[in-house]
Each structure stands twice: as C-alpha cells, then as structure tokens.
C-alpha cells in the first residue's frame, strides 16, 4: 500500500472533521466492498457487509459508485433504497432520482459496434472476457495466459480508437472502453452533492475506492471530502487515508456505524 495514514488508526482524527456534520458515504464496489476475484460475476457481497451497509443507510446517506453496469451492481448489493452510480458515473438511479449522461447515450451505437468487434476478435483467446455495461465495456485479461495478455489489451485499445465517441482506460486486469467525454466518478459525485443539495455545513462526504477510476473521485473531493484508498493499484494516489483490504473496510464501516448510532442515542 502507498504510505498513507491508516483510516482505522486515524479514525478519531477523521471523526473530528465531522464536527456537527453528518457523514455521507460514497462506496466503490469491486476491491472495496468485495475482494477482487477472477470471475466478475462471482464478486459477491458478504451478508455481514450487506447488513452493515443496510444499518448505516437507515440513518445516513450511502451511495454505491461503480464501474459496473448499474443494474448489475444494484442486484449484487441488493439494498433497493440506495442510490447507485453505474458505468463510471454515466448512469445514476435512486428511488427518487435518475440521470443518464448524454455522452453515454451518444456513445451507445459505438459501444454496440465495439462490443461485437471485440467478441469476434477475442473469440479464440481463452480466458478473455468482454463485459458489456450500459455505457462502457470492460475487456478482462486477468484469466488470459500471460503471453496473450498484450494482444487482448491492444485489441481493446484499437477498438476504442476506431470510434471517436469512445476512449480506453486502465483498471485491475482490464481495459475499459468508456464514452469519450470528460465525465467520471468524481464528477458524478459532485453532480449528486449539488443535486441532492448536500450542504458542506451539514454533510461530510467520505469516499472509499481501490482502483484507478477512484482516483478521479479522490482528486475531485480533495478539498471538500475525506478519501480512502483500499489496497494498492500500483500508481500515485490522491487519497488522504488508506485501508489494506476489504476486511479493513468492514472494520472502518463498523466504526462509522458505532459513531452514527452513538450520535443518534445522544440526541434521543
Ligand atoms: O468501480 P468498481 O465497482 O470497482 O468496478 C470496477 C470494475 O470491477 C469489476 O472488475 C474488477 O473486479 C473483478 C471481480 O473481482 C475482477 O475479476 C476484475 O479483474 C477487476 O477489474 C467489473 O467486472 C468491471 O466491470 C468494473 O469496471
């Protein structure tokens, strides 16, 4: 892990920044709430984590911010009252809110074409997986033999270059094709904070994430939120604190829950 202060060891310092404000949690899914596993469909939320999220969400704002397809991550978390951000911020939906980013909609024909091109190009590569999300495509090479991984990455990058409404991006064991527009997890969080009128005097946003796309959120929130990197993605980070793994995320969320419940008791 990069040399970051531990969000567990420094929980009192983090708590002090709440002051009289309520915490609003923004949580990434893969690598943060569930460990990274070879098969994306087997990245399942533990019951312990689900109960923890449910208990916090009953008292505080809790939003899932994922690169996955929104419906897919909502299905996996299975807490219908939450707001879910999918496709890296291009697809947002909650009980009383919905936003499909125009650049995602504009990129749909290119995404459909690129998906087919990639399925054809990679059909003979054992372990390569093309995961279509509504407004993105993840090309997985984690399960591809090392000598073929470069070919998979190149196919994905070339597919993105063939379509001007798409751009490539990196991640853990994946190359993603995303809408070619300056929009990302960080901007979608800013949009949510403004749309939900979360005033900085009343709310302190806290973001937990593990991968390169979470760095967009860390950078965006640097001056107005608390940011926590989970594990290590091998690059520089803009996060303020660190946690080693999903188990430590669980311990951190438990501390948040205790703090939230203690505040509720002291106000009753
Ligand atoms: O923003 P996230 O919620 O973290 O989603 C990022 C990507 O996560 C998934 O891929 C990653 O997790 C898989 C399961 O552990 C792993 O097999 C893969 O190597 C990782 O890159 C998901 O499949 C992607 O669509 C997301 O973009």
Automatic annotation (TrEMBL):
<comment type="similarity">
    <text>Belongs to the trehalose phosphatase family.</text>
</comment>
<dbReference type="InterPro" id="IPR006379">
    <property type="entry name" value="HAD-SF_hydro_IIB"/>
</dbReference>
<keyword id="KW-0378">Hydrolase</keyword>
<dbReference type="InterPro" id="IPR036412">
    <property type="entry name" value="HAD-like_sf"/>
</dbReference>
<dbReference type="InterPro" id="IPR044651">
    <property type="entry name" value="OTSB-like"/>
</dbReference>
<keyword id="KW-0460">Magnesium</keyword>
<dbReference type="GO" id="GO:0046872">
    <property type="term" value="F:metal ion binding"/>
</dbReference>
<protein>
    <recommendedName>
        <fullName>Trehalose 6-phosphate phosphatase</fullName>
        <ecNumber>3.1.3.12</ecNumber>
    </recommendedName>
</protein>
<keyword id="KW-0479">Metal-binding</keyword>
<dbReference type="GO" id="GO:0005992">
    <property type="term" value="P:trehalose biosynthetic process"/>
</dbReference>
<dbReference type="InterPro" id="IPR003337">
    <property type="entry name" value="Trehalose_PPase"/>
</dbReference>
<dbReference type="InterPro" id="IPR023214">
    <property type="entry name" value="HAD_sf"/>
</dbReference>
<comment type="function">
    <text>Removes the phosphate from trehalose 6-phosphate to produce free trehalose.</text>
</comment>
<dbReference type="Pfam" id="PF02358">
    <property type="entry name" value="Trehalose_PPase"/>
</dbReference>
<comment type="pathway">
    <text>Glycan biosynthesis; trehalose biosynthesis.</text>
</comment>
<dbReference type="GO" id="GO:0004805">
    <property type="term" value="F:trehalose-phosphatase activity"/>
</dbReference>
């Amino acid at each position: 892990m990069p040399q970051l202060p531990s969000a567990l060891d420094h929980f009192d310092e983090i708590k002090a920044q709440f002051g009289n404000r309520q915490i609003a949690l923004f949580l990434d899914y893969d690598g943060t709430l569930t460990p990274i596993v070879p098969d994306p469909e087997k990245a399942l939320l533990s019951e312990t984590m689900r109960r923890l999220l449910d208990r916090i969400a009953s008292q505080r704002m809790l939003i899932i911010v994922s690169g996955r397809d929104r419906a897919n991550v909502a299905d996996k978390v299975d807490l219908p009252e939450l707001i879910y951000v999918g496709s890296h911020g291009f697809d947002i939906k909650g009980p009383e809110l919905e936003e499909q980013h125009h650049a995602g909609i504009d990129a749909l024909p290119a995404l459909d074409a690129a998906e087919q091109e990639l399925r054809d190009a990679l059909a003979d590569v054992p372990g390569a997986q093309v995961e279509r999300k509504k407004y993105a495509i993840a090309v997985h090479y984690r399960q591809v033999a090392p000598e073929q991984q470069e070919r998979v990455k190149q196919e994905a990058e070339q597919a993105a270059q063939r379509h001007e409404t798409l751009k490539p991006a990196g991640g853990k064991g994946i190359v993603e094709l995303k809408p070619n527009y300056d929009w990302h997890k960080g901007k979608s969080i800013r949009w949510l904070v403004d749309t939900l009128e979360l005033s900085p005097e009343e709310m302190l946003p806290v973001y937990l994430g593990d991968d390169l796309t979470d760095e967009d959120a860390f950078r965006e929130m640097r001056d107005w939120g608390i940011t926590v990197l989970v594990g290590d993605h091998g690059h520089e980070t803009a996060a303020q604190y660190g946690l080693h793994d999903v188990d430590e995320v669980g311990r951190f969320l438990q501390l948040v829950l205790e703090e939230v419940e203690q505040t509720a008791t002291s106000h009753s």
